[in-house]
Amino acid sequence: MTEKYQNKYRIPSARLQHWDYRWAGAYFITICTKDRLHYFGEIENGKMILNEIGKMVQNEWRETPKIRPDMNLDLGEFVVMPNHFHGILIIGENEYNGNGGYRGNDGNGGYRGYGGNGGYGRDAMHCVSTPTPTPTPTPTPTETTNQFGPQRKNVASVIRGFKSSVTKNARVIIPDFAWQPRFYDHIIRDDKSFKTISNYIINNPENWDNDKFYGNL
Fold first, then answer.
1. Most distant CA pair in the chain, distance
2. How far apart are alpha carbons 47 and 43 in whole angstroms?
3. Residues 55/44, Cβ–Cβ less than 8 Å
4. CB of 94 within 8 A of CB of 112?
5. What are the angstrom distances between the C-alpha of 92 and each of 41, 70, 98, 101?
6. Average pLDDT of the residues in 50-77
């Protein structure tokens, strides 16, 4: 996956005030369970042992590109932890982002970047709400309200569908199962960041004792 990512989804490092989450790129996603309860299994000897619900999460995420073929999705590394999920979601060029997404190779060994106005990605983690039908990324102190109107066929819509499907099936086993209402995203800017985040995900079970999501709130 790193080889496939390399030089394909590069985003310059300048901070962006407005970002359309339909745009092609790689996104590091983190989703926690409500109250960080351990619904998905436990860590044993540095390895994640998935229970039935944990396997549901894993299988549902793997199916994400097949469920939404029109978005041209791909998956990087991902891991299901006892009370949260980490994954890299890659959105390729598609009919919904053709006017503002990843522009591809410019023919001169460079890249034309993201955004119809020469926009660039940002490197801050922030929370996005998923319950509403047309969610818009929640502004951070350095951002203003999203300028692109109602958002669909974007990162939030993918996560909303993923969470909804897991919830429906998990509640057959545990009626009180619930995700945290919001999720965290991080736009991956370059190959180095992609590799660093991929390694973080792979090693997450071994580093569980030092994980900021360790235990309950």
1. 56
2. 5
3. no
4. no
5. 32, 10, 10, 8
6. 97
In 3D space, the residue among 199, 166, 174, 173 whose CA is nearest the CA of residue 32 turns out to be 166
Instruction: Report the alpha-carbon distance of residue 87 to residue 183 in Å, rounded.
Output: 12
CA distance 183 to 179: 9
Query: What does the domain layout of the chain look like in residue ranges?
Result: 2-208
Name which residue leads in pLDDT, 119 or 99.
Answer: 99
Query: Given the structure tokens 């969610």, which residue do they identify?
Result: 135
190 closest CA partner among 17, 8, 20: 8
Those residues with Cβ within 8 angstroms of residue 212's Cβ, 6 or more apart along the chain or in another chain: none
What is the three-class DSSP state of 54?
helix
pLDDT tens per residue, range 17-34: 467 888 899 999 999 999
Task: Tell me which CATH code domain 2-208 carries.
Answer: 3.30.70.1290
Cα–Cα distance for residue pair 60/158, rounded to 1 Å: 11
Q: What tokens appear for 5 in the block?
A: 């990512």
Token pair in block for residue 6? 């390399």
Q: Which pLDDT score, from 0 to 100, does residue 1 have?
A: 55
